[in-house]
Amino acid sequence: MTTAQRPLPSGFGPASTAEDVITGIDLTGKVAIVTGGYSGIGLETARVLRAAGAEVVVPARDLERAKAALKDMPGVEIEHLDLMDPASIDDFAATFLATGRPLHILVNSAGIMATPLARDARGDESQFATNHLGHFQLVARLWPALVAAGGARVVAVSSRGFRFSPVVFDDLHFEHRPYEPFAAYGQSKTANALFAVELDRRGRVDGVRAFAVHPGTIIDTGLAKHVSADVVRAAGAVDDEGRPVRDPARQFKTIPQGAATGVWCAASPQLAGLGGVYCENSDISPLVPASGEAGWRAGTETAGVLEYAVDPEAAARLWEVSERLTA
Ligand SMILES: NC(=O)c1ccc[n+]([C@@H]2O[C@H](COP(=O)([O-])OP(=O)(O)OC[C@H]3O[C@@H](n4cnc5c(N)ncnc54)[C@H](OP(=O)(O)O)[C@@H]3O)[C@@H](O)[C@H]2O)c1
């Protein structure tokens, strides 16, 4: 049965942290992979899952940076993976599958935002390739381990930035329209949300459930490195002195708050038997009308997902296109 796109309510909220939502949950015997688990939201996710007892694997395109970031987390495994390089995705998955371990939790936190136009070796636009296609391929290759878990969760770390753009199926890679960095980011984050919808539909028969997550606006991660200080200030994420604004009710969160929803989706028993929904503030998001757009821009509407980011038909179409693009 399809899970309703509306709050449970979970009892958690915008200020909840990853530690809050994992309290009382024992992940001993569970295996988790956290892409991007060596920076920002992913790093905190890896830390909290490990502290709850999970075996944690962090795929990294920069092994030395990953080793430095994870040096205080004994037992976390690091393996090479570059989401822009399909062969490295296959190699990572083959290495993991060769261990014979099931995979109970996959958190797809790696991502890039508003980068200058770049393409991978196949010619695919880099934000779509990294944020969506790389993770699509990773899930496909890890499928046997997810099924073997007998109850697995995949968390697609999306963003409210999905509002910048739907998936533009006629020109996924900006070949026929001017490149706009935030439109490309928005398209990739809508793709993350749609991926969770279709992955859940296809996976639930095998016990694989999927969730999409908006973490909040967390300015002290590495994500905004391609965004100018003016744009960051205009978004309200820093004050006039450049200090991060902390106001979780308006989505301006710390890293522990930003990691909370993904950890909740990965591990909470409150979501048993559910999936295919977009979540934020450690709860399922409400579905909101597109007419609320002005409120979102003015900052009065702070939560909610639009229909186009959870539309089952678009999700099915994206799946077929992604299968073709990743062969
Ligand atoms: N921070 C926010 O306000 C916010 C808001 C909404 C959604 N999100 C989402 O949250 C997720 C985590 O972002 P963050 O804020 O924690 O950013 P971050 O600190 O920059 O972390 C992103 C991670 O992704 C890795 N990565 C990037 N490209 C990769 C590739 N080709 N292959 C493998 N790994 C790659 C980065 O590795 P390198 O260090 O090697 O580049 C880094 O470890 C992203 O999906 C982002 O879209 C963040």
Automatic annotation (TrEMBL):
Supply the alphabetized keyword list: Oxidoreductase
Q: Which residues form the signal peptide?
A: none
Picking any one GO molecular function of the record gives: oxidoreductase activity
Family matches, as Pfam families: adh_short
List, alphabetically, the Gene3D superfamilies matched: NAD(P)-binding Rossmann-like Domain
- What is stated as this protein's family in its record? Belongs to the short-chain dehydrogenases/reductases (SDR) family.
Protein name in the entry: Probable oxidoreductase
